[in-house]
Amino acid sequence: MNAVKRYGVDMGNSHMWRWAARKITTHISMKMRCMLVAWLTKTQLYFDVMIDESTDSDGSQNLIIYIRVEIDGDPVSFFWGLVKLRKTTSAADITDALLDDLIASNWLGLKRDHMVMKWVGFATGGASALTGPNRLAEQFPLIMSTHCVAHRLQLIVDDTVKKRAISIKFEDAVRDIYSYYSR
C-alpha cells in the first residue's frame, strides 16, 4: 500500500479494517472457487481430493480441502477451502462436512453426477477418522483412497525417535525450551 501511495494514489482507509479485509477476502475466495468449479466442469478432468484436519488456536477443529488434477503430466493442487467442523471429528461427521462443502448447493460447488464420474482419488493424513473411505466409495465408485506420504514419513520418524532414549531426552529439552519462551 505504501508503494501505491508514493505514486499519489489516494487509497483511503476503509479497507484497513478487519471486517473490510474479511469481506474482500471472502469475495475473492468465492470468485476463485467459482472459476475452479467452472474450469473443472468444462475440462472434464479427473480429480483427487486431499484433506487434513487442523486445530485453531481457540481449539476449534477445521478441515482443509485441496483439489488435485493432472495438467500436462504434472500434478497441480488447488486450495478448495477450510471448513469448520461443527460436530465431532468422527469419520461420519468429517465425510458429511467434506461432501456438504464439495457438492453444489449453489454455484460454489460441484455437481454430484460430475463427482461420480470424475472423482478418482482421496488422500488423507491416515487417521481413521479422516479416511472414511468406505462411506465415500459407496457414493463415488472410482475413488481410490491413499495415505499421505508426508504424514506416513512423520509417523516413521516418530516411531524411530521413540525407540532412542537420547532422542526422547532431546525432544523433552526442546519442548521445555519452547514452553518457557512461549509464556
UniProtKB/TrEMBL annotation:
<protein>
    <recommendedName>
        <fullName>DUF4371 domain-containing protein</fullName>
    </recommendedName>
</protein>
